[in-house]
Amino acid sequence: MNHRMLVVLSVGLVGLLVLGLSDSRKEKQQPPAQGQIVHIGAVEVQAVSHNPRIKKQVILSEHAVPHLIFLSRSVFKTGDSAPGHSHADMHEVFHVAAGTGTFTINGVNRTLQAGDTAHLAPFETHEVSNNGPEDLVLVYFAIRP
User: Fold this and answer.
1) What are the Cα distances from residue 69, in Å, to 16, 44, 74, 141?
2) Which helix (H) or strand (E) holds 3?
3) 3-state DSSP assignment of residue 14
4) Cα–Cα dist 66/121, whole Å
5) Where does the chain show beta strands of DSSP type E?
6) Tens digit of pLDDT for each residue in 46-88?
7) Do residues 90 and 144 make contact, with C-beta atoms less than 8 angstroms apart?
8) CB atoms near residue 60 (< 10 Å)
9) In what order do the strands lie in the sheet with 91-98?
10) What's residue 50's pLDDT?
11) pLDDT tens digit string along 122-133?
């Protein structure tokens, strides 16, 4: 094989390699985000795992947004509570959309009312209770640390 043929062969192999890499990169890239509108009335109502009396709607689920685990809305009727628990793999952010509730975070009781937001880091033990006369409505999300 002469020098000229070796150069052509090398350039051809590098070209194929580069084309192969660029094609594989295209496959791994996510398509550009499309605007998504979700109406709460169209979202399935399901039981919360911590207390099946509490109902939630998962508005956005994992992979809908990078790092997002879920975006949900829950309604706690008077007397409902989600018992103390923690998560090793997520931050949770709770926004009180309506009502008043007691958030027990690492053993400390705090009253949160409509307009308040609480952030819980991984491993923080938390419990939520509705001791008020009206529904406690939470909009909350979780992300990976």
Assistant:
1) 38, 17, 16, 7
2) helix 3-28
3) helix
4) 18
5) 46-48, 51-61, 68-76, 81-85, 91-98, 100-105, 108-113, 117-120, 126-129, 136-143
6) 999 989 999 999 999 887 888 999 999 999 999 999 999 999 9
7) yes
8) 16
9) 46-48, 51-61, 68-76, 136-143, 91-98, 117-120
10) 86
11) 999 999 999 999
pLDDT confidence of 34, banded at 50, 70, 90?
A: low
> Which carries the bigger pLDDT value, residue 139 or residue 66?
139
* pLDDT for residue 65: 87
User: Tokens at residue 39, please?
Assistant: 């109406």
Structure tokens at 135: 């529904």
| Tokens describing residue 137 | 């409505």
AA identity, residue 120: L
